[in-house]
Design a protein that fits this description.
The chain is of the alpha+beta class. Helix content is about 30%, strand content about 15%. The protein contains eight helices and 13 strands. The strands form four sheets. The chain has a five-stranded antiparallel beta sheet. Strands 7-8-9-10 form a four-stranded antiparallel beta sheet, with no helix packed on it. A two-stranded antiparallel sheet has the order 1-2. It is elongated, with a radius of gyration of 38 Å.
């Protein structure tokens, strides 16, 4: 249906926008202004039923965006991160990534499609010619801008088309939640995992090289031995995560050479056990000076005195290495008498 098929009395009133205006060539302006073509009304301008159909279509797109946003959040929560599905013709893809991409794409696309359909079918489509003006707007121009804004707001029918307004506001309110949910991928909250290791009372000290429990006789004076908690195996899925906190170095020092009173109480016949994880940035400590009882981190040369509570004597490390209290069980094997009394490795912001 076009405007030619509608009686003139049923057509909306034309506003003065210069349609059909033609300029006249003269000496100052040899090129005549052809003017704007006559305005043709859309079917939505002359048929309220067609306008309602367009309104429902726009509302449907905004509602679909809201549903897609809810689907995005539900997919993030419900779909395992390691699940794979077959999608023709792509092949096997990660189910979570596919669901997140699809739902977020639909949410954003339908908002855009709804806005475009709204503008093309319901907002005013009258072409407006405006003369250029200086950069500094005079008062009359500012008044005109305000008047144009009010006119545009009126012509958008945002106040009258409440269904569009409400569904658009709902879609625009929900879609930012997708970005908030993605912040969850910055990493899981550590909780108390950084404060505890696998060491506990009764856990045997197992030699990292032989995978056998250690006896006091296995640790010679001046030697450096690395140990792990009983039950932790290299084929375990969480091995790297747990050994990064529980790695232990064992040194035997003559009891008379131990300067720190608590270190001596927590040792067994001069055998002391300290965290192998440097308190600077978490590198594994592996260099031991037999005569001085100093251990050196190879990354940034932080040096700790194992004969004096593993305090820092050089380098950027901020605090001493945590000590593990050890003893001997009835079978004669070295065992832990608890966990470290403080978090191992570098300090972190919530460490209290």
């Amino acid at each position: 249906m076009s405007s030619q098929d509608i009686p003139e009395e049923n057509l909306p009133e034309e506003q003065e926008h210069g349609h059909g205006a033609v300029g006249v060539a003269d000496e100052k302006n040899p090129f005549a202004d052809p003017g704007l073509p006559p305005h043709e009304h859309r079917v939505q301008d002359i048929d309220e039923r067609a306008a309602k159909r367009s309104e429902r279509a726009v509302a449907f797109l905004f509602t679909l965006s809201m549903l897609a946003t809810v689907g995005f959040i539900a997919s993030y929560v419900a779909i395992p991160h390691d699940r794979a599905i077959y999608v023709f013709p792509i092949g096997h893809v990660n189910a979570l990534n596919f669901a997140l991409g699809l739902t977020l794409g639909v949410a954003l696309f339908t908002i855009g499609a709804g806005a475009v359909h709204w503008a093309r079918t319901l907002m005013s489509d009258v072409e407006v010619a405006d003369e250029r003006h200086p950069i500094e707007a005079p008062p009359e121009v500012r008044e005109k801008v305000q008047a144009d804004f009010k006119l545009g707001a009126k012509e958008s029918a945002l106040g009258r088309r409440k269904l569009i307004r409400n569904t658009m506001l709902g879609a625009l309110t929900l879609v930012p939640l997708s970005g908030l949910v993605l912040l969850r991928d910055l990493g899981p909250l550590p909780g108390t995992k950084l404060r505890h290791t696998l060491w506990a009372k009764g856990k045997l000290l197992v030699n990292m090289n032989t995978n056998e429990p250690l006896r006091p006789s296995d640790v010679a004076v001046g030697s450096l031995t690395f140990a792990k908690p009983e039950g932790l195996e290299e084929h375990d899925e969480e091995f790297q995560t747990e050994i990064a906190k529980a790695a232990l170095m064992i040194v035997r020092i003559q009891p008379d050479n131990i300067k720190d009173k608590r270190e001596l109480e927590w040792s067994h016949e001069g055998i002391v056990a300290y965290s192998k994880i440097c308190t600077h940035v978490g590198c594994p400590i592996s260099l031991y000076e037999q005569q001085t009882h100093h251990v050196l981190c190879p990354c940034h040369q932080s040096t700790f005195d194992l004969a004096d509570g593993a305090r820092v004597i050089f380098g950027p490390a901020g605090h001493a290495l945590p000590q593990l209290r050890i003893g001997v069980n009835d079978a004669g094997y070295l065992e832990a008498l608890g966990d470290f009394d403080e978090p191992v490795g570098p300090a972190f912001w919530e460490r209290g």
